[in-house]
Design a protein that fits this description.
The chain is α+β, with helices and mostly antiparallel strands and 238 residues long. It folds into two domains: 6-58, Roll (Structural Genomics Hypothetical 15.5 Kd Protein In mrcA-pckA Intergenic Region, Chain A); 66-233, Pseudouridine synthase, CATH 3.30.2350. It contains six helices and 16 strands. The protein has helices at residues 8-14, 20-28, 118-125, 145-153, 186-193, 224-235; strands at residues 6-7, 32-34, 37-38, 44-45, 50-53, 56-59, 66-71, 99-100, 109-115, 133-139, 156-157, 160-161, 166-171, 174-179, 198-206, 219-221. Strands 7, 8, 9, 10, 13, 14, 15 and 16 form an eight-stranded mixed beta sheet that branches. Strands 3-2-5-6 form a four-stranded antiparallel beta sheet. The chain has a two-stranded antiparallel sheet with strand order 1-4. A hairpin with a 2-residue loop joins β5 (50-53) and β6 (56-59). α1 packs across α2. 27% of the residues are buried. The protein binds uracil.
Length: 238
C-alpha cells in the first residue's frame, strides 16, 4: 500500500476476497468493518488498519519477504536502469516490492539478498554490523605467497587500506576471499592491486547463507531458520 490509503473495495479485491464489484457489494451490505467500525462505500484504509469481512480479519500490513537470488553476470543490481539493461528486479516477483541489499557489479555472479525489510537492510549494510561475504575469484596468473599475504593483511586502495581478509587458494588461479567490508568493487580492486586482475567473480556466501543448488537467475525465499541466523549474524557488532 506504500503508506497511502486506498479504497476498501480495492484492498479487499487485491487480498483475493472477490472482484472489486463483489467487494463493493459486501461493503453496501454492511459486512465489512475497518478497525471495528462498519465501513461505507468510499471509505479508505491505510497500512496497519484492521480490515474484516463478516468478522474475519485481513492483514493490511505488507508481508516481509527476503529473497536469495543467484545473480547471473550481465544483470544490473538496481531497481531500474536508465540504460534499459536487465536488472535483478526482472528475476523476482514484482509484488511485494523489494530492494537489493547492497550490490554486485554488472559482471559479478552469485548470491544477492533482496528484501522489503529496511531495518534488516540497514544492519546488513552498516559497516559495524556487516556480515562476512565469501567470494571465489578467478584471477589472471597464479598469486604468489607474497600476493596472498598482502591480500590477507590489507591492500592499499585509493579509498584506504582494506581490513584483514581470509584468503585461500582453491585451484591454480582461483582464490577464495572472505571480507566484511562492502566497498565498491572491492575484491576486483584488491586483486588488481596485487597484480592479479579478476576474470570471473562469484559471491558464494553471505554470512550464514550458502546455496549451491540455486542456478544462475533463480531465486527463493529464505526459510525461517535462515532468517533467524541472518538476523543473528547481522546483529552481532564487530
Ligand atoms: N567486490 C567486487 O569487486 N565486486 C562485487 O560485485 C562484489 C565485491
Amino acid at each position: 500500500m506504500d503508506g497511502e490509503s486506498e479504497r476498501a473495495q480495492k484492498v479487499l479485491a487485491r487480498l483475493g476476497v472477490g472482484s472489486r464489484r463483489a467487494c463493493e457489494e459486501l461493503i453496501r451490505e454492511g459486512r465489512v468493518t475497518i478497525n471495528g467500525a462498519v465501513a461505507t462505500l468510499g471509505d479508505r484504509v491505510s497500512e496497519g488498519d484492521q480490515l474484516a469481512v463478516d468478522g474475519v480479519v485481513f492483514s493490511t500490513m505488507p508481508e516481509i519477504v527476503v529473497y536469495l537470488l543467484n545473480k547471473p553476470a550481465g544483470v544490473v543490481t538496481t531497481a531500474s536502469d536508465p540504460q534499459g539493461r536487465p536488472t535483478v528486479m526482472d528475476l523476482i516477483p514484482s509484488e511485494p516490492r523489494v530492494f537489493p541489499v547492497g550490490r554486485l557489479d554488472l559482471d559479478t555472479e552469485g548470491l544477492l539478498l533482496l528484501t522489503n525489510d529496511g531495518a534488516l537492510t540497514n544492519r546488513l549494510t552498516h559497516p559495524s554490523f556487516g556480515v562476512d561475504k565469501e567470494y571465489i575469484a578467478h584471477v589472471k596468473g597464479n598469486p604468489s605467497r607474497g600476493a596472498l599475504r598482502r591480500l590477507r593483511e590489507g591492500v592499499e586502495l585509493d579509498d584506504g587500506i582494506t581490513a584483514p581478509a581470509q584468503v585461500s587458494v582453491v585451484a591454480p588461479g582461483v582464490i577464495r576471499l572472505i571480507i566484511h567490508e562492502g566497498r565498491n568493487r572491492q575484491v576486483r580492486r584488491m586483486c588488481e592491486a596485487v597484480g592479479h586482475p579478476v576474470v570471473r567473480l562469484v559471491r558464494s556466501r553471505i554470512g550464514p547463507l550458502v546455496d549451491r543448488r540455486l542456478k544462475p537467475g533463480e531465486h527463493r525465499l529464505l526459510d525461517s531458520d535462515e532468517l533467524l541466523s541472518l538476523q543473528r549474524a547481522a546483529s552481532s557488532s564487530r
